[in-house]
Amino acid sequence: MIDAPEKTAWVIGASSGLGAALATRLANEGYQVAISARRAERLQEMVSHQPKMHAFALDVADHDATTACANEILDRFGHLDLIVFCAVHGGETLGFHDRATKGMAIGLLGVTAALEPILSSMKERKSGHIAFIGSPVGFRALPGTGSYGVIKSALHYLAEQLKIELSIYSINVQLILPGFVDTELTQKNEFPMPFLMSVDEATDRIMRGMRKPSRFRVAFPRRLMWPMRLLGMLPDHLYHWVMSKLVKSVDKHQPRN
Ligand SMILES: NC(=O)c1ccc[n+]([C@@H]2O[C@H](COP(=O)([O-])OP(=O)(O)OC[C@H]3O[C@@H](n4cnc5c(N)ncnc54)[C@H](OP(=O)(O)O)[C@@H]3O)[C@@H](O)[C@H]2O)c1
Asked: Which residues are marked as active site?
């Protein structure tokens, strides 16, 4: 076991984008940070710059390996104060069912596989912090988001369910809802991305939000979130009418994973 009197965190999906930036911030703030993703060489490079980071190469779609990795991290760190789920299916060209299968294996079942041992440990300690990176596309059905929207919507449900159920163990759960952020994930998008943020700006906002445990949803930027929330409050027939107007324009784009 490493000597971990400091806070400890595990960031899943830490080899690029928001996960890499969050892992770096947490380590710079003094956390011992376990970083996981498939690209082991990227993790090794991060570790070489920041000794508070520890690489645990992992494909979260392999659920047995994910649970084993969670146990290994608990053994090495002794406990986990924070777990952040960032992994997302990058979206190679697949059919509808295969995209959904792969997306869920990573973005939903990868989460539950990692959480199983972590939750037991956090419950025992009556302490812990779980942060899910969701997406505003999970608010309500949006055309063109494919299974990405379905998976995020399920993740939001899981986050809220855990928020309620884990409150008796003093385990905090947060749902992070960023607008468009300039990462590998979005760089292949061909549609307009209003209010696109840099990874640095989004990471600042997420770190600020994670320091306010009373906030369940950390949603930003407001200028994108408010219209989306208002749209989400429309009665079904009106919402469906508005969205159906969008269908033609999104139909020519490849749906996300
Ligand atoms: N960018 C945005 O505009 C935006 C907006 C809202 C929400 N989000 C959410 O933010 C999170 C981070 O996305 P990002 O934009 O930072 O994307 P990103 O740069 O593509 O990062 C995705 C991360 O997931 C990892 N990953 C993918 N498949 C994996 C697997 N099977 N096992 C383990 N790790 C895996 C990738 O690493 P490897 O390839 O090395 O495995 C990478 O580290 C996602 O949940 C995304 O849905 C992003």
From this structure: 148
**Residue nearest to ligand 1 atom 7, measured at CA:** 135
Q: Can you tell me whether residue 243 is helix, strand or coil?
A: helix
Give the distance (Å) from ligand 1 centre to CA of residue 77: 24
Ligand 1 centre from 20 Cα, in Å?
9
Q: What percent of the chain has pLDDT over 70?
A: 93
Q: Are 52 and 77 in contact (CB under 8 A)?
A: no
Domain annotation for the chain: domains and CATH numbers? 8-251 (3.40.50.720)
The greatest distance separating any two alpha carbons of the chain, rounded to the nearest whole angstrom, comes to: 58
Q: For ligand 1, atom 11, name the residue with the nearest CA.
A: 86
pLDDT of residue 125 exceeding 60: yes
Beta bridge partners of 220: 178
Name the residue of 25, 36, 38, 56 to mutate for ligand 1: max ligand atoms within 8 A of Cβ. 38
pLDDT of residue 2: 52
User: The pTM is what?
Assistant: 0.95
Q: What would the mean pLDDT of 206-220 be, rounded to a whole number?
A: 96
Six token digits for residue 195 = 């209010």
Q: How confident is the model at residue 5 (pLDDT cuts 50, 70, 90)?
A: low
Ligand 1 centre to CA of 238 (Å) is: 33
What are the pocket residues of ligand 1 if the criterion is a CB atom closer than 6 Å to any ligand atom?
13-19, 37-39, 58-61, 86-90, 106, 133, 135, 178, 180-181, 183-186
Q: 80 vs 34, 172, 252, CA distance in Å?
A: 10, 13, 44
Name the residue at shortest CA distance from atom 33 of ligand 1: 37
Residue 100 φ then ψ, to 5°: -65, -45
